[in-house]
Structure formats: C-alpha cells, structure tokens
Design goal:
By secondary structure, the chain is an alpha/beta fold. It has helices at about 35-45, 60-70, 120-125, 140-155, 175-185, 195-200, 210-220, 255-270, 275-290, 300-310, and strands at about 5, 10-15, 30-35, 50-55, 75-80, 90, 100-105, 130-135, 160-165, 190-195, 225, 235, 240-245. The chain has a single domain (about 5-310), classed as Ribokinase (UDP-N-acetylmuramoyl-L-alanine:D-glutamate ligase). A nine-stranded mixed sheet has the order 5-4-1-8-9-10-11-12-13, with helices on both faces. The relative contact order is 0.14. Bound molecules: 2-keto-3-deoxygluconate. 2-keto-3-deoxygluconate (KDG) binds near residues 135, 168, 255 and 256.
C-alpha cells in the first residue's frame, strides 16, 4: 500500500545558466518539475511510500518525465496517451534587481484531458493521504471537475485529502481560483495556503492565526497550515494552534520550497508524528530545498534532522 498518492502535472523545466537570459543563452539545463511530484518526492525522502499519478504523452518527452521522477524513488501511475503534448516551462533565475522569469508552455498538455477513470482510483482509495494542489484544476475545465470528483471519492472512502492553494497568476485570475477552490473545500481535510494566497485569492483578512481560524470555522478543515515564507508557519489542527519559525538558509534555488515543506509535513503526519514536530520537519526541509538547484528536495531524513538539531538560526524567533 502507498501512504501518499499525489496527482498533477509534471513539466520539463528548461533554464539557462545563472545570470543568463533565455533570449540569448545557447544552453538550457533540463530537469523535471511539478508541484505535486515535488511533494511526493519530499515525502518519500522523509520516509513515506509515495506515488505520483498523471496522464502523459506516450513519447520520449513523457517517458523522460517518468524516468526523471523514478530516479528519486517514487512510484508513478501513468495513463499514457497518443493525444496532447508534454508541458514545458522555461525558468530564468532572478538576479537582483532582475526578478525570476517563468514562461509556461503547457497549453494542451496531455494531463489537461484527465478524467477520473484515467487515474489509479484503487491506489488512491487505498492510500492514507491523497494530495493535489490548486495548480491542477487551473489547467482545464476537465481537470476542474476531475479534481473535485477524485477528492470527493477519496474523502468518502476514508482517505485524508490534502490540498495546497498554490495560486499561480499565470494560470488564472484570483476570482476564478476562489470560485473553483471554494467548491473543492468541502472535500478537503488538510488545507495548506500561503498567507499571501489566503489574502489575495481567498479574500481573508487579519494575521495568520485569524486566517487559519476563519478557514477552519467556515469549511471545517481538520488541519489548516498557513505558510509565511521567512516568517515561518502556523497550523490549526482540531482547534489547537501550532507555530514554527523558518530556518535561515542560503538561497540557491527557491522554486519548490513550499512543496518541500508540504511533503515533509505530510510524511510526518503519515507516521503519526505530532503537528508541531511535523511543522519543524517541514520548515527544515524547506530550508534545505533552497540550497539545492532544481524544484526537487534531494535530501535524507538524517540531513533534515541535522538542521533540526543544529544551531542554524530560526529566523523569526
Ligand atoms: O511549486 C513549484 C512549482 O511551481 C514548479 O515545480 C512548477 O509545477 C509547477 C508549476 O505549475 O508552476
């Protein structure tokens, strides 16, 4: 049995060397990257048995995605298709004062046509946690309804459903996102949201604690986690409040920090670890992610524990 099954799109990430422009670089580094597979990998690195499910084109590009993920030890459950393409994104790393530039080339990707029957519903029903994020329903109207159906089915069969708002402004507007996500909320047990998304997309006001209480009261989530970047994180679980600061880190590549946090948090919850400790592992894993190029947190549990047991600064204390 798999502890955690995640579902979403994983793309090929192409990026010029640090400092170089996409327009002029003659080399592009090639990696695989997607929020939900990033979460599966982070959870696996912390000890969970994790699988990622999706629909991919039966082509060298689709097979490259699977090969790129399997090297990290997760299982993949794929609906292969001859229709649709492999989504790609281009990433130009930011150098002050030039910001990071993300260009998506993911329209008509094979994943956008995923119906519930394309997914491994048996594995999802057998899992302890099913996870997806707000990126997935943003990709197509088919995915909006598939995500809702699969979340409801998983929850009805006793699986804990976990979801990160993960708002991406290049995919949809805040209003479109809010309307879609609030339809999904009744089918979600564990909600993760960046404080910024809670304000700008979900229309919440107040501090992180007000946000967590407001969401938990309105939608009856079992757990709400509000992430606050360098200000740390706050969780409300069954009415009890937990807080954790962020760890100081040298940032080499920030992409995937939130996914590393969520994957580690879920891995801890899967093995029965309490919420406070799960936040600590999430925070340390997120800090380590920022030191690693690529979207994926390639660490061991021992390395995470070394951060937890060291005197690395917790920057918001
Ligand atoms: O959370 C990191 C993701 O944003 C990145 O891996 C790419 O999945 C991705 C997306 O849709 O932006």
């Amino acid at each position: 049995m798999t502890d955690l099954v995640t579902f979403g799109e994983t793309m090929l990430r192409l990026s010029p060397p640090d400092g170089e422009r996409i327009e002029s670089s003659s080399t592009l580094e090639f990696r695989v990257a997607g929020a939900e597979s990033n979460v599966a990998i982070a959870a696996h690195r912390l000890g969970a048995k994790a699988a990622w499910a999706s629909k991919l084109p039966d082509s060298p590009l689709g097979r490259r995605v699977v090969a790129g993920l399997r090297q990290f030890g997760i299982d993949t459950e794929i609906a292969w298709t001859d229709e649709g393409r492999q989504g790609t994104y281009y990433l130009e790393h930011g150098t002050e004062p030039r910001g990071t530039n993300v260009i998506y080339d993911r329209a008509d990707a094979a994943v956008t046509t995923t119906e519930p029957d394309d997914l491994p519903l048996g594995s999802i029903r057998d899992a302890d946690i099913f996870y997806t994020s707000g990126i997935t329903p943003a990709l197509s109207s088919t995915l909006k309804s598939t995500v809702g159906e699969v979340l409801r089915d998983a929850q009805a069969t006793g699986v804990t459903t976990a979801f990160d708002v993960n708002y991406r402004s290049k995919l949809w507007s805040p209003t479109e996102a809010r309307d879609c996500l609030t339809d999904l909320f009744p089918a979600i047990d564990v909600l993760v949201t960046a404080e910024r998304d809670a304000r700008d997309v979900l229309g919440r006001a107040g501090d992180a604690e007000d946000i967590a209480h407001g969401l938990a009261d309105e939608w009856e989530f079992e757990t709400v986690v509000v992430t606050r970047g360098s200000a740390g994180s706050l969780a409300l679980h069954d009415g009890e409040r937990f807080e954790q600061s962020a760890f100081d880190t040298k940032t080499v590549d920030p992409i995937g920090t939130g996914d590393a946090f969520v994957g580690a948090f879920l891995a801890c919850r899967l093995d029965g670890t309490d919420v406070q400790t799960a936040l600590e592992y999430g925070s340390a894993t997120a800090a380590l992610k920022r030191t690693i190029p690529g979207d994926v947190v390639v660490v061991t549990r021992e390395e995470v524990e070394r951060v937890l047991n060291s005197d690395v600064n917790e920057i918001s204390r």
